[in-house]
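Blinded run. Sample ID left blank on purpose so nobody reads anything into the name before looking at the predicted structure. Input follows.
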Amino acid sequence: MNEKYTKKTFGLEIIGILLAIVFLIPFYFVLINSVKGFAEILIDAASWPKEVLFSNYAKVWEIINFPKAFWNSLLITVFSNIGLVLISSMAAWKMVRTPGKISKFLFILFVAAMVIPFQTVMIPLMKVGGTLGIMNSIPGLVIMYFGFGVPLSLFLYHGFVKTIPYEIEESARIDGCSQFGVFWRIVFPLLKPITVTVVILNTLWIWNDYLLPLLVLQDAELRTIPLATSSFFAQYTKQWDMGLAALVLGITPVVIFFIFLQKHIIKGIASGSIK
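Blinded prediction complete.
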């Protein structure tokens, strides 16, 4: 056996594989039961379907108006990400490049905001949103996501900006580059790894969020995918066949997005170096 590949490594790999299987079990139940009839799910949820019913997906597509719900979720996720990237990257860069008590205080304030439970600010947030007239609107929901998403995004950017040599920015200023030019032409392109990480993490959060859209969006035309999916699970009736098919439709886009970009999470957080 190779010296680098020890029995301990082999044991850890086995444990990792077993844990992966455990985590994949819920996906198995969701996928298998999404193509079963309601009665068959109640009889045996773990068995392979006797008859594969892809018609469940067609029914769900029509019932919840999936294209509209998908479009709403896409708009909210895209514009929230754009705002979070712009606000957080510029704020983090300014805090790092202007060290002092004010910058330190603001950074601590943002970091402290990450540990405040949403439930503690839920009622005041709804009152403020109603006063400002941003309730029951997609732009209003996006603005709220700015407030809840900036702390973590700024924290990630703040650590990454510190790795960028200040001499690069000084050279650009000597060449006549303005402050905005330094950021957009020099700094922001170097932030690509952490920007991808921020976008991935916020996309997974915003796309799957249920509580905040439930509180803000009342009209059926504004429903996101999680809100549309929840319509199959009422207090006295649970349409498992339709609900699980809707769940598969809802998570498929974000799973594909994550699979293609997951390597950037580790690269953005762990590398922290400018070559």
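Unblinding after everyone has recorded impressions. Residues 57-271 form a domain with the MetI-like fold fold (CATH 1.10.3720.10).
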